[in-house]
Every structure is written in C-alpha cells, then in structure tokens.
Design goal:
18 helices, about 525 residues, 4-stranded parallel beta sheet, globular, alpha/beta
C-alpha cells in the first residue's frame, strides 16, 4: 500500500485513559470522503485522555499504530449502508474478536450511522450499544462512562441513562445537533497522498464543508429525510471561516459542500460566489433539480464539475405520491440548461413504487427517451428498485422481487439503445431484509459472513409489515407525533401532497416542534 497521510493524530498510549478504534466497514476512498467519519476522529482526539485511531476495511490494523481491534478499549463503527453489516462481522473476526456479543470479551463495541438510527435490530446480536441520531451530543458521555467503569460490557445498563444511546430491548430517543454553528466542523481533515486509485478519496482532493443537516422536502421514500429532521444550516459567516481555516490546515483549494440537501442551502449562490472569490473551486456530490440555476451551475462548472447528478425518480403521477412534485417541464428545462453549458447529466429513477402500473412504466420510458434525445450520449440513467425503509411512510410496504424482475425486463425492452443501468431486484431484496428485519436477521448475517446464503433464505426472512403491526424499531423514538407517518402513508396512497415546509410553514410533524 503506497499511502502517505497528513493531519493524523499520534499520541503516547501511556498518557491516555481510553483507546478508541473508529471503524469504517467500507473502502478507504469512501471513508476519507465521509464528513461524519472525520467528525468522530476530530471530536475524540480533541480530548487529552482519549486516542482515536482508524481501522478501515479490509485492513485489519489501525492506520495510526498498526494495532488490531482486540487491543482497543472501545470500537466505534460508522455504518452508512446495510450492505456493510457483513463487513462489520468480518472486521471483528479479523481483529481477533468474537463476532457475537454474548460470546465476546474485550472492548465495548458501539455503532452509529443512518441505518443504525433507523433500525439497529438486525445487528443487535453483534453490537453492545448503538448511537441513535448524531454523534456529537453523545460520544463524550459514552467515552466518560467507559473510562469510569472497570468493565463497560458487564455494566452495559449504565449507558441507558444517556439520551441517544440504545441498548437492545430498551427505549431510546434520537439526539441531534440543534445549532450548526456549534457543531463539530473538523478543520484538520486527514490528507492522503497516493498514486493508487483505490486509496484516492471518492470526492477527490477536496475539503469537506458541512453546510447543512436534515432536509425539509418530505420525500416519502427517503430515510435520511425523516431521520434527521429538521433541516439545520451552518451560517454563511461560519462556513467561510471554516473554509479559510481548512485551506490552511489541508492545503486544499477545492471544497465539497456536504449536506442531505446541500443545494437547498438558503444562501447557496452567495456561498458559492464568496468561496469562488476566495479562490476555491466548489463542488457538490449531488444536486436537487429544484435548486439548479444557471449561476449555480456556472460556479460548479468552474470548480471542475463535469457531470450533474439529479433524481427525477419517476413520472409526475408517481412523483406526486412520493411527495416530490417536480413537473416534467422543469426536469427538461434544467437538463437543457446543464447540457447547454457542456455538462453531462446522470439521472436516477425508481421502479416498484406503490401504485405503479405498466402504463406508468411506459410513460416513464417515453420521458427518459425524450431526455436522452436532448443530446445523445450526454444523458445517462440509473434505474433502481424502491427499498422500503423504517421510519418512513414506506415502512408498511413490502418488496416483491419477482414482480420487480418482470418490470425491469419490461423497461429494458422499452429502453433498448439507451445508456441505462438497472440495479438487480435480488440485491434489493437483501437490502430490504437488512433494513426492515428484526433480530432474527442476525442468524442470517452470521451465515452469510462465512458462506453463501441461498436466495430463498433471504426471501424467507422478507418481513412485509402492515399497518397495525408492532415494528421491530418501535423502541426507537425519532420525535414524530404518533400519527404523522400514518397520515403520510394515507396521503401517499391517495396521491396527496404535503407542501415543502420551507415555503408553507411547519406541519407539526415533531412532538416538540422543529427543535429535534
């Protein structure tokens, strides 16, 4: 491995009270483009009594000291995707530890991230406790208690008093950072230098700037849009200050704007203009169609943007049921604007949405052809099965891989000759089981970690929840009023919109209002 890193933290183990391994069950290039992963590293290493090191799959030892996982006091897994669960088990095994928590001695193992906040039950046999929500309000308290207790794993119930901590079978309440100006904005981000493509950060050599968290659009299929409400923004002045400090610490002149809805930032054009005036090139991983303007695209193109990534999702009728009421005319207009500026356009669409008919699919194929014809070869498409997620109105919908397979075959025939990539319905079903399953999925994960599991076994664990069922994640409290998700579920079935609260005002989805 040819890699040199700057801004890493090295401490003397004799002078600290707690050694933490921050574990990322995905590739290095993804880990180093994860602002959340940088936040945990910075937050813990800002303490004199804690040393946080990184262990990133598939490397079994830490990057800072070369230590295996068994040498640490606390293991913290950052998990963004359900497919990473298998890598969590592999990392524990490679680190010299037992996989199941009831058969393991050694460090306390915790986990957090979007799919954990949503439903930690599928991995509850392997993880000692979970962080529900965002890490900053919780992590220091967990570290303090780990230092205080002689054997944190034996005294696991002591952690239950910390708001934002979930110990399986006990209630837990989500926590978030309310004031983004006071959130952790890591300035001394790790800078890797390498010639190996697999070690080059997926967002390139850029400083990660956290402009916002949460989203107020209310798309009914979007898990993170529900998990991290309300939308919270870092002030423009604070962002410019962080950017200047970040350049001094990293040497980067390129900035990636990070947020669930970064292009919805209320002063996005002003922010981009100010950053450009400071000599930065500006980029964003993805953009909302509604937020695209000629000025914004011009700024991003100047920052090296070559491809605009947007998600129209489906036809207007289906978009309406998903609470994403973008008119076809707007999609065509914004696509044309990007193409005129010499940019390529990549579009994401969903298939298998509740209420979708063959006529809807024909209409979708016709719309995609119209988009492709705007400039042949410059517009590409990705079509993915809709995966129902916990804590969304979709949580009561099932997943039928056989029907999806037929729909994909139907769409392939309609779209012959177009640059379309279809995601497989079989992988979608596995993701659905890992998203919406209960503790029984743990046995399946353990089998899959050591051998290939027949697809019929995954099918056998397909939950298919219905309204009125007690859901595995009922103990996870995101702060919604009790009937809110059911109201959105009924509106979805009837094709009724819930207006964007940034424009229409608060809809009262949270019991305590929009302060988390």
């Amino acid at each position: 491995m040819q890699l040199r890193e700057y801004n890493t933290v090295i401490k003397n183990p004799r002078n600290i009270d707690l050694r933490v391994a921050s574990c990322y069950p995905g590739p290095y290039r993804t880990a180093m483009s994860s602002l959340g992963y940088h936040i945990i590293y910075h937050l813990l290493n800002s303490r004199e009594d804690v040393w946080c090191e990184r262990v990133i799959h598939p490397y079994p030892r830490s990057f800072e000291s070369g230590s295996p996982l068994r040498d640490f006091d606390l293991l913290s897994f950052t998990i963004h995707y359900e497919e990473d669960y298998l890598r969590v088990l592999q990392m524990l095994k490679d680190g010299g530890l037992g996989v199941r928590k009831d058969e393991r001695s050694g460090p306390l193992v915790i986990a957090g991230g979007p799919c954990i906040t949503s439903n930690p039950l599928p991995v509850s046999d392997f993880i000692d406790l979970f962080i529900i929500g965002e890490a900053e309000p919780v992590l220091d308290q967990v570290a303090d208690l780990c230092i205080e207790l002689d054997d944190p794993r034996s005294d696991i119930e002591e952690f239950m008093d910390i708001r934002g901590v979930y110990v399986p079978d006990n209630p837990a309440e989500r926590v978030i950072v309310e004031d983004m100006d006071r959130a952790c904005h890591p300035v001394r981000q790790i800078v890797p230098e390498t010639t190996e493509k697999s070690l080059t950060p997926s967002l390139g050599r850029s400083f990660l700037l956290g402009v916002s968290r949460g989203c107020s659009r209310g798309c009914r299929f979007c898990m993170s849009g529900y998990l991290y409400r309300p939308k919270r923004e870092t002030s423009l002045e604070r962002l410019l200050e962080i950017a200047a400090e970040g350049r001094r610490a990293t040497g980067y002149d390129r900035i990636s704007l990070i947020g669930a809805a970064a292009s919805d930032y209320s002063r996005i054009e002003e922010l981009c203009s100010e950053l450009t005036d400071m000599g930065f090139m500006v980029s964003m991983p993805s953009l909302r169609i509604e937020s695209l303007t000629e000025t914004l695209l011009d700024t991003l193109a100047g920052g090296g943007l070559r491809t605009v990534t947007v998600a129209p999702e489906s036809t207007m009728k289906i978009r309406r049921s998903l609470n994403k009421p973008i008119e076809d005319s707007m999609v065509l207009e914004k696509t044309g604007m990007a193409l005129e500026m010499g940019l390529r356009v990549k579009m994401y669409f969903l298939i298998g949405v509740p209420g979708e008919t063959s006529e809807d699919l024909r209409e979708l194929a016709s719309f995609m052809k119209k988009l492709s014809d705007m400039r042949r070869g410059a517009v590409s498409f990705s079509v993915n099965p809709l995966i129902p997620k916990p804590h969304t109105p979709m949580q009561w919908e099932g997943y039928d891989s056989k029907t999806l397979k037929k729909k994909i075959r139907f769409m392939r025939n309609l779209l012959k000759g177009l640059p379309v990539k279809f995601a497989g319905p079989r992988n979608g079903l596995i993701q659905y089981v890992l998203s919406c399953g209960g503790p029984d999925v743990g046995k399946l994960l353990e089998m899959a970690a050591s051998s290939r599991v027949p697809f019929r076994e995954w099918e056998r664990h397909t939950p298919g929840w219905r309204p009125g069922d007690r859901l595995p994640w009922n103990n996870i409290d995101l702060g919604f009023r009790e009937d809110f998700l059911m109201e959105e579920y009924i509106k979805m079935k009837r094709g009724i919109l819930t207006d964007w609260c940034d424009e229409s005002g608060c809809h009262g989805c949270m019991r305590k209002g929009c302060r988390g």
